[in-house]
Amino acid sequence: MSGTPRLQGQAGTTTGTAHGARSRRYAVDGVRLVCVVAAYYLSAKLGLQQELVRGQVTPFWPPTGIALVVLLLWGLRMWPAVALGAFVVNVTLGPSAFPVLAITVGNTLAPVFAYLLLRRVGFRIALDRLQDALALVFLGALGGMVISASVGTGALVASGALAGDDFWPTWSVWWTGDAMGVLVVAPLLLVAREARWPRGVPALRWAEAVALLGGTAAVSVVATHSPVNLLFLVVPFLIWAAFRFQLAGAAPCVLITSVIAIHAGAQGVGPFDDHELLAQMVILQAFNGTVSLTALVLSAVITERNHTLGEIERVCEGLTEALSQLAPEEPLDQWPPSWPKESDQPRGHSP
Question: At 53, is the secondary structure helix, strand, or coil?
């Protein structure tokens, strides 16, 4: 009977430890929730600077990218934070309770659906494979954001805030904005998560990075504001970024190019001039989608190539070490060793 109090004490300690772990987890989740809601709200205000319909439909909606990254990093349990952030933003925009709740549901379901699709295909947040880049573009952005655009636009039409004839133009702006939020913001946040201040980088490398970002911005302004269609001029800079800096260079270049193009599309200048709203969004979505796809796919392919070369080098080093142990006196530059000729072998009588 003397062991009973000790067992009870151990059980109490275990229970207290488990309770403390749960408390810490709830505290961390609470802090994350507050941070997600704040980031969602602030990025929404930034995106609304380019609104085109009713003061709440914009061709660039950063919260979708933030919401998808939050789910990818911390799991599906963070969906209440996304829902709360969407509600806080939309309750200030109106027009009434029904569309606010419907838009909140749509803005929550879209990143959740995109997250589930990406998990289904084995998406890796490192974006270091071709299949990950393609999945983010076609499943996470273009496919997943159909839900929020359809639910939100339908709610505005059903509530009488929009005329029925405005459904497709508004839908195109909504879908473009949500998709651009994923294509532009999500890769940038994912690469920033792993970013570390580089050490020992030559000054020439820094100069190249500055020239890349500055050149991308300058060419994007010219390409999107010129009356002549020069949108293709940005492609060489995206190739440059992907080949030389991979995702760390491609993601900022995509952000710069897309934001400048979105501003030009909202102002109706350059290639977007003399077009109706639906046509403007088609051009904008095609351009930004091409930019994102080109940069992400190229950076993923180059990263895969670098990983493959690294594996080959490691295998060669291991093989060299193994050969050195098998023939320690034979120089490796003369491998395979020169085996004795048959004429040099001692001759004997056959049995």
Answer: strand
pLDDT of residue 351: 42
The one-letter code for the residue type at 320 is: T
What is the CA angle 169-170-173, rounded to 5? 90
Q: Would you say 109 and 116 are in contact if contact means Cβ atoms under 8 Å apart? A: no
Please report, as a single letter, which amino acid is at residue 87: F
Report the C-alpha gap between 346 and 129 in whole angstroms: 58
pLDDT of the residue at 1: 47
Question: Which is nearest to 185 in space by CA: 43, 66, 46?
Answer: 66
* Confidence band of 230 (pLDDT split at 50, 70, 90): confident
Per-residue pLDDT at 337 exceeds 80: no
Long-range contacts of 154-157 (CB under 8 A, 24+ apart): 154/102, 155/98, 155/99, 155/102, 155/103, 155/106, 156/54, 156/95, 156/99, 156/103
| Structure tokens, 97 | 């309770």
Gap between the Cα atoms of 179 and 123, Å rounded: 18
Query: Could you tell me the two tokens for 111?
Result: 């990143």
What does the buried/exposed string (b/e) look like for 101-116 if buried means 16 or more CB atoms within 10 Å of the residue's CB? ebbbbbbbbbbbbbbe
Q: Residue 291 in contact with residue 231, Cβ under 8 Å?
A: no
Q: How far is the C-alpha of 344 from the C-alpha of 62, rounded, in Å?
A: 78
What does the alpha-carbon distance between residue 74 and residue 35 come to, in Å, rounded to a whole number?
13
* SS3 state at 57: strand
Q: 57 has which bridge partners?
A: 53
Total-model pTM: 0.79
Tell me the CB-side half-sphere exposure of residue 233, using CA atoms within 13 A.
Answer: 17
The string over 285-305, giving b where at least 16 C-beta atoms fall within 10 Å of a residue's C-beta and e elsewhere, is: bebbbebbbbbbbbbbbbbee
Question: What is the CB-side half-sphere exposure of residue 89 using CA atoms within 13 A?
Answer: 32
